[in-house]
Amino acid sequence: MSPDRRVRLSAIPLLVVLSLIAGLALGAAVPVAGPSLSPSSSGPPPAVVHLNVTVLLQPNVTDSGATVVLRAIVTENGAPEQNATVSFTSSAGGTFFPLTGSTGVGGEVNTSFTAPTVTVATTLSLTASATHAGFVPGAASANLTVQPTGYYLIATPSFPQGTSLHSGATDLIVVRVTNNNGLPVAGANVSMGTTGGSVTPSLATSGPNGNATLTLRAPTVSVATQVWLLFIASAAGYSNASAIASVTVNTGVAPSLYVTLITTGTGKALAAGATLAVTAEVTNATYVPVSGANVTLILSDGTSSPGVVVTGATGDANFTFTAPSGLSQLTNVTITASATATGYGSGSATTTVEVAPSTVSQTTSNPTDYWWLWLLIVVLVVALVVAVIYRRRRRRPTAAAPPSAPPTPPS
């Protein structure tokens, strides 16, 4: 073998070694095959959606122990967020009812806040915090100024027909308005808001016993639905009152009850404090009596007994109404009979009774009922006439005596 060929053969291992080293260096510079880390294959990170909360406070100034209404509206990207859980907190005492709630289709949930007792004007921060699966929680606050104890109202709703009704049915609701001493407040304006259905009238006024009556027409629903009611009462000289309640609206439309009210009045105004028999006749749409119906009387003033009457086979419910006392003027008292029964939609009827002031027992009376007064008037008139005649006679001048004849001269 020639020397040149030996040199070329000996160089081969060296070239192989150099090639291996170059390959290893190149392999280190090139990433190993595997999952791609390029932005084009991974895509942008998922968007983060925040819940936005708006808090509305009515009113924003109140007295110790009074109540205000707090409304929380939850949205995401400007759209109402349904079924979000909202909890309420205060920076310095007081109580919420309810303490937590779930937003409806409008993204809203309401609560009633009772202010704490303070000795100097105090500003509280009321906060609504919202959470919902898949969203970043949100919160918002509103300030409430609480003044030392003054005069405030208390609103207490009651449901004579129960807290459940059928789709599209109506329900009477009585709101009793009292002051912070527990006394009824007449002339208070009461309004009711609802998360479903409609309310009439838009504004009711409390009577002498503090009661205001409103009617709720339930919404049409395809599944059982809870409807929240918000009550606000106001009157001159008092801080406003608020209250929260709920009713359950069931599916299906039930046949309605029909109620007729009968009273035994004589056509005259009822004397203050007097009693009156009241009968409520409950039937179905074909005027067949309905037994087993619960009937309650709702009064603008006065009292009734018993509280609730269950109708018998004749469909009648009998009550005794006692007219109010202490009236200063002729007053119309409204009597409403409210009836409910299983398998029926509620029914009601209303009548008005005129009640005379406490100082007068009847508005139309027989003149002979006051014979003693007429006799007294006649005696006074006769005495006056006699006195006038006697006085005139004493003042009449006495007639002068005729002059005497002159004396006859002597002859």
Structure description:
The structure is a single chain. The protein has helices at 3-29, 39-42, 371-395, and strands at 52-58, 61-63, 67-76, 79-80, 85-90, 95-97, 100-102, 108-114, 122-131, 138-147, 153-158, 164-166, 170-179, 189-194, 198-200, 204-205, 211-217, 225-234, 241-250, 258-263, 275-283, 294-299, 303-305, 308-310, 316-322, 331-340, 347-355. It is mostly beta strands and 411 residues long. The protein is built from three helices and 27 strands. β9 (122-131) and β10 form a beta hairpin. It has three domains: 52-147, Sandwich (Immunoglobulin-like), CATH 2.60.40.10; 153-250, Immunoglobulin-like (Sandwich), CATH 2.60.40.10; 258-355, Immunoglobulin-like (Sandwich), CATH 2.60.40. Strands 1, 3, 4, 6 and 8 form a five-stranded antiparallel β-sheet that branches. A five-stranded mixed β-sheet has the order 2-10-9-5-7, with no helix packed on it.
